[in-house]
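User: Show me sequence and structure for the first protein, then do the same for the second.

Assistant: Starting with the first protein.
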Amino acid sequence: MGKVVITGASSNIGLAIARRLHELGKPMLLHCRSHADRLAEFDAEIVRADFSVRADIERFAAQLKDVDILVNAAAETQTGLLPTLEDADIDRMLSVNIAATTLLCKAVIPQMCMKRSGIIVNLSSATAGRVFRGQSVYGGTKAYIETFSKGIAAEFAKKGLRCNCVAPGSIDSGSLQKLIINTGHDILRDVNASAKFGSPEDVAASVAFLCSDESRYINGAVIHVDGGYWLGL
């Protein structure tokens, strides 16, 4: 039985995803950069790695053997107008959001093709299509993820691999708090047609669907979990 691998599993969204995919009964490998204690509830292999460090990405990628499902939920969010961002913050977003996702997919695709079966779910963001002030770099990294994921689907669907994205909007999680400081609580809430925040469990439900056989004919798609972020805009 192949593994379920989840990066960023100790975040609020990552933890919700881990709880849903734990129901599959497969062995789990859970990545975190910090707060490994939050993952103690799982009978899983837990690996700490800082994806802003290339050597850590490569070390983690080398451990990805017999993977059935890969969920890339690790992300770095820094908010600020481009001239105000530190170069180190930009580098972290490019490394965690782009390089790590790219290299981990590269590591698992050959083995998935050999098995003629495999599922990759990459977390994008509503900012990939409509960016708030201060989100130019972060939104740009997520736009890459969506195009990259569609490319994987186009290249490897005939080998039995499915690659899709889930794009959260205003989800009540840790990363939202940074954006609230710069944008405002009411603005972020009311930009959704539902005029309320979503929960990490809302995101996890969509990820679980994409990891199930019920979504077997969905490939290269982006599922928006954003409360109607696009409606009327």
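Switching to the second protein now.
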Amino acid sequence: MSKTINILGIESSCDDTSAAIISNRKILANLIANQKVHAEYGGVVPELASRAHQKNIVPVVSQALKKANLSLNDIDAIAYTRGPGLLGSLLVGGSFAKGLSMTLQKPLIEVNHMQAHILAHFIDDNASSPNFPFLCLTVSGGHTQIVLVRDYLKMEIIGETLDDAAGEAFDKAAKMMGLPYPGGPLVDKYAQEGNAEKFSFNAGEMDNYNFSFSGLKTNILYFLRKEVDKNPNFIQENLNDLCASIQKCIIDTLFVKLEKAVKDLNINEVAIAGGVSANSGIRKRLLEKENQGWRVHIPKFEYCTDNAAMIAMVGFIKFQANDFSELSEAPQARLKF
């Protein structure tokens, strides 16, 4: 019988402090401390985020170990997010992981946050895991990418946003309509009651598999200004239809490129990942593609937004490959694959 491998995962790339324990591919604990303070500022404040991580990281790790019914001595390695993300936040998680590694004399494993979103599909309580090679549409507040995944640690970005991410477009559109931060989930909520054909928005065309969403934000801003000038109650009276129409435009933009990649590369294994993959419209659109022969993979909701379970999953894969890190490796806000 093969040895059980226990990995402690630590995630601190943005404003959520998370710790998880994975035993082989089974998650024993996955705890997240959210930071409510950013809502009043309409977005994440980096300095406040890093301070909150310092406050949260010890109790979150402690509670994760308690829930998993393990001690630090039972851990085989510590995996942490090296990047991409907010530098101050990454420093807190990385420094804590390095200190723990030195104290326990346990291996250290650095993890790329975006790769972790993709490899969350291989946690054993997901409905299904993709077969290699597969395409993954990775959508979050900071990233929008189409990734060709040839193996666990062999990935290539074949398309990405050239300006703003899809998640940022959702949040900025919500802010224009007076919705609180984070607005993306609220757009999704109201969209379910609206008519997606009521208004027409345009995100613009990009070459190959790339995206652009900055033009869409401008399009929405000018449209709302014009309509509110004519009717000050326009947004309140049309909120559901506005949300549905904006959401449809973003999803259409994503799927035009994803469909092109599937056709061009002749790969019908398709997954989604990242915080925006929790969006009900994206999930519904992807499931509809099963009728066209796609084999689709949608992560559980708890593995969509930032979480340490996905960091621990990569840690497990790298541990098996003896792919360990040096204490000297610094966090990188714009870490590439």
